[in-house]
Amino acid sequence: MPKNSFKFDTPEQKAGYVQDMFSRIAPRYDLMNRVMTLGRDQSWRRLAVKRAGIQAGARVLDIAAGTADLALAARDAKAELIVAADFSHTMLKYARLKIKPWHQRNGKLAPIHLVTADGLRLPFPNNYFDAVITGFSLRNVGDLNAFLKEMTRVTKPGSKVACLEITRPRQPVFRNFFAWYFGKVIPKIGGVISGASDAYSYLPHSVSIFITPEELRVRMEDAGLNNVEFETLMFGTVAIHWGTKLRATTNATKTRLDDAKSDIQNFKTVKL
């Protein structure tokens, strides 16, 4: 693939680029998030946790968790079991560095279990989690429909799936500023802070070709969710979608169930 063309011939090629990209930007990922969003991203994560209906005692999965900011927001909501899964081992290493002091300061809150996993093939049983959440991941997956179906599959009937994602503003004045800020400013800042300007050129490209909030709502419904709603924030640059799973899933494979029983019920985590 030519440098900065971001043209992927297969979902696997895109996944390989994204995995490598996040491994390269992991050391400065949190700092860039704070800079890009002017410090607002943490409040968006807390709102996503609220929309997911996460309550005390819940089992929660944060898929494509990155450095686990969304998982930490779920822990603040007093979830009982929190799994942060990502296919980038490097991102999870930095998640662990951040989570460890939180555990030491807040010993009474649930620990966060880090699991290396592909969002298109989750190693968890059907109907297991009280909430499944993801943040800023949907643009990056090779097969969005399969990703949403996997999120739905592992969610309990009656529970919710919530997605936090960047979107394009509708109003021309904000849309033009957003295009300039993401297209011109962010790649330069990202290059200075992370040393990976291509990663922060990929960001505006991925946003520009991603589906609208209305289209994402339809995709979530097609994945098996009901009563899907969404709200936009920050002048329409961010959207939170959430929907409820009503029917149980019954088509898990034996291998997937066996792996999940080992990893989750015994509270085993990846050694990082």
Note down, in words, how this protein is organized.
By secondary structure, the protein is α/β, with parallel strands linked by helices. The chain has a single domain, classed as Rossmann fold, CATH 3.40.50.150. Helix content is 46%, strand content 19%. It has ten helices and seven strands. The chain has helices spanning 11-25, 29-36, 41-51, 69-76, 89-105, 144-153, 172-194, 197-208, 213-222, 254-265, and strands at residues 59-63, 81-86, 112-116, 129-135, 155-166, 225-233, 238-245. A seven-stranded mixed sheet has the order 3-2-1-4-5-7-6, sandwiched between helices. Helix 2 packs antiparallel against helix 7. It is globular, with a radius of gyration of 18 Å. It starts with 10 loop residues before the first helix and ends in a 7-residue tail after the last helix. Residues 253-258 and 260-272 have low confidence and may be disordered.
Per-chain topology:
Elements: H1 11-25, H2 29-36, H3 41-51, E1 59-63, H4 69-76, E2 81-86, H5 89-105, E3 112-116, E4 129-135, H6 144-153, E5 155-166, H7 172-194, H8 197-208, H9 213-222, E6 225-233, E7 238-245, H10 254-265
Parallel strand pairs: 1-2, 1-4, 2-3, 4-5
Antiparallel strand pairs: 5-7, 6-7
Helix pairs in contact: 2-7, 3-4, 7-8
